[in-house]
Amino acid sequence: MHLLLPFAVLLVVAVLISERAHRTVLSTAVLFLLGGFLLGPGVTDVLQIEAGDPIVGGLAELALFSVLFTDGMRVGLADLRAAWRLPGRALALGMPLTLGITALLGHFVVGLPWLESFLLGAVLAPTDPVFAAAIVGRKEVPGRLRHMLNVESGVNDGLALPVVLALLALAGGTEASGWQLAEEIGLGIAVGVVVPYLVLRLERLPAFAAVRAHQPLVAVSIGLLVLGVCEATHANLFLGAFAAGVTVATSGPEFRVEFERFGELVTELLKLAAILVFGALITPEFLFGEIPLVGWIFAVLALVLARPLALLVAFVGARLPVREQLAAMWFGPKGFASVVYGLIVLESGIPAADQLYHLIALVIVLSIIAHSSTDVVLARQFDTDEELQEWGEQEQ
Questions:
Q1: Is 63 among the domain residues?
Q2: Contact status, residue 279 vs residue 34, Cβ threshold 8 Å
Q3: Where are the transmembrane segments (predicted)?
């Protein structure tokens, strides 16, 4: 069966239960993941999808570009200057420590070589609070906590990608030399900065100003132009997307506001379609026949040990209330970036590619289920008094 009909049916169901999902443990992400699993090979065989199919790579690439562009829009330089201490701790200390602890687990629990263990850690280091929407979308959750999770997730996808590419190159997973890889990364960032900057400068000229009705399309057109230029020049399109989002948020913050509703809905649709496809790749044989017990042990420890320990160290001296620390330590859901980075590893052809992909996919599946099912419960634990609602606390 074609992908469109199952996706449309699941989308209608998701929209109809969205109000209830906002108040309960129901989750849109879990709905699409479970839908893909049930419709995929080995269950009902409605969707016949394999990892090497063009739709998998193409949809994942387009969705991640959109996700990174949207993430970059959330973290303009003004936002980082206004409240950088907590996100800075999570990114500068928490993320490398999460990567390192995950690598240790990969080496000592699963038995992976060190290089592959660090590659595994790099792929699983980014977070995505979209899978824990109640935390970042509820007013009863302290503003500084929501801000920290938003900024952290907005930045760490882009920070992890060069590390993933570099480690993959060291493992022999790409034909690009070190200089060529650096050139692709640098060119991607340059395209992501220069193209939006020039377009925004042109838009401010009287002859080119966009009418009010078309202003949401300014950021969308910039994103598409960056995508096209990156494809034409072989620049790294993911870093180009992230840099473009940051540039728009910094140089044209008014367009970020216009883009927010329309652009994020488009990104959400692409992400849900990709999760549906990802769910169809996770067959019963994949989960219970191809992953040994040590793989399950690794996946559980990667969720309940790696990030909590990392942020426990990162928050030393932060004077953050214990309840907020615990929430931040738990809500490090493995997001869509990890799905795509895992597919990049799988398609790289390195000897451990299949084993790494199985471990990555298992962690993501468990993360989506665990975090998307506990966000509302935890959000309700926060008081709604003025002190917890206050935005401008010293530790921002």
A1: yes
A2: yes
A3: 47-69, 90-112, 118-137, 158-179, 185-202, 209-229, 269-287, 293-316, 328-350, 356-378
